[in-house]
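Lab meeting prep.
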Amino acid sequence: MRIIGAIPRIQIAGMEIQQAWSTGWWGDIQIYVERMSVLPDQSRSAVSADDLKRSLQTKQASNRFLNWLKSWKPTWKQEKYLYVLALPGLLYFLIFKYIPLWGLSLAFTEYSPYLGLFKSEWVGFKHFQSFFANPDFWLLFRNTLAISFLNIILFFPMPIIIALLLNELKNVTFKKWVQTSIYLPHFLSWVVIVGICFLTLSGSGIINKLVVESGGQAINFLTNPETFWGMLTAQTIWKETGWGTIIFLAALASINPELYEAAKIDGANRWKQMLYVTIPGIKGTVIILLILRLGQVLDIGFEHIYLMSSSAVTEVADVFDTYAYRVGIQNGRFSFATAVGIFKSVVGLILVLLADRAAKKLGEEGVY
């Protein structure tokens, strides 16, 4: 066996493995290793089997990379406009999602704007320990989980239900009118929505005026801790339900119409068609979105909570986002605020991984 090129020539049983070097197939490598192992020590070359394997592996990887470049070049020429179209999105994620990851190191330093990121004192997990030892940690954890689970239980199913109902409408004009109407709230900012809420639910708002005129007493909706979580959930449902139906309507449109025809032949009515054809058809989409939603359990939106908060409801309104802003940003403790953000992200990542594994064990498709 003889090897040519960068590796010294080796003669074994009068056979060459030049083909192994030129192609890099692992079968030839294994043959070489087996034959080297049965030869006497004095017959072996200075080049070991491990050296040969590493060399062949390097050449194989190089060949794969060159082949990929050759295959990518005509693709770029044929679909260059698609790449140009994707460029703004790629730049967005690069600039605002990947480059800022370097700032996560702030959580492990005592950051000072005067010293900069690289010269600030390294303190390790000090800020994490301070955060977990804070007496307010469990209060923040309770409020965040409560609001998030209310959104999952009450808000998450709403787009699915609305999409199923819209799918049953036969009047196309009415269906489009309804879709347009329920999409509009998504484009309103939380400032506008909270402003509407204050105008209607405050002590001098429209609803309380109607209550008083009908002989009742005014209800303090905005300052009542018992109604705060429900009010937040109701606002989220009103604002985002319509927009959330888009992806489910797209999933419904992908269901094969022949399945409905077969169900009709079998005598299935509209309800059974929805139960045995429609819902199973979008089950995969629902599971994937639920898994991704679990990754945002501790990220419930700063703007919404901050605008609705007041001193009267602080006990039920203070969450991780508002706490990081109040204690971290306003007090100049940027490293502490970063530590809070990392904690939220790690918990979300763990929940996504666990939910994905559970979905796969149940026979469903996961996120990856």
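Slide two material, second protein:
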Amino acid sequence: MSQTRPEPTAGSPQASAKTVAEGVEAAAETTVQTPAEAAAAAEVPVRRALLDAALDVFTERGYGNASVTEIAARSGIAVGSLFHHYGGKRGLYLALWEEFQEEQEQRTAAVVAAARQHGVTDPMALFLAGARAYLEGAWVRRRMGRLLQQEDGPAGFGALRRQWDRSWVRRNAKLLKVDETRRVGRVRGVVLTRVIRGAAEELSDCADMAEAQEIIEEVLGILAHLSKPPG
């Protein structure tokens, strides 16, 4: 007659060994990458090196005078890999722009969401919190601001930027609860957004953080005044 073995009790050597084995198995399941995931992870530093080098060359020489040969040389990545990942310097420029805008959107959205979680409901206060986050981000990424000041981007970039600006205006109008069905409401959103954009570009020329912070505070005061509804 067979006997059923008792389950290992907590703290016993058998239980400890079982726990360790389960932990190793779980860790293996979470760390194993598929070939596609491993290839994508390997490409991250390559893309980063190319983008960083492109920003250096674009800001130093301007987009028109930049060459993919110099960008590749500075990055330490083969020219063929540059074309594989970005298709040329236009793709690099647009990737830098998109990365910058995504970072700025995430930064402002996170700050506005945090303000709401702390009980802030006033549209103007939320708008100013988002504006501060955007301007502080512009100072952090001031080299990108210097590049945009050159107005020497690839063909079609101006139209792409205007399209993004229109979307930005709509987001700001929604945050401020502006009536976009009225022309005065639309104009208000456009003016406020252009003030932020212009100030963000000016921040790229600041000598230090103290000067940048002074400009940010001044611009926020202007925005507070302009964002007050008429009447």
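Talking points for slide two:
The radius of gyration is 26 Å.
The first helix runs from residue 13 to 31.
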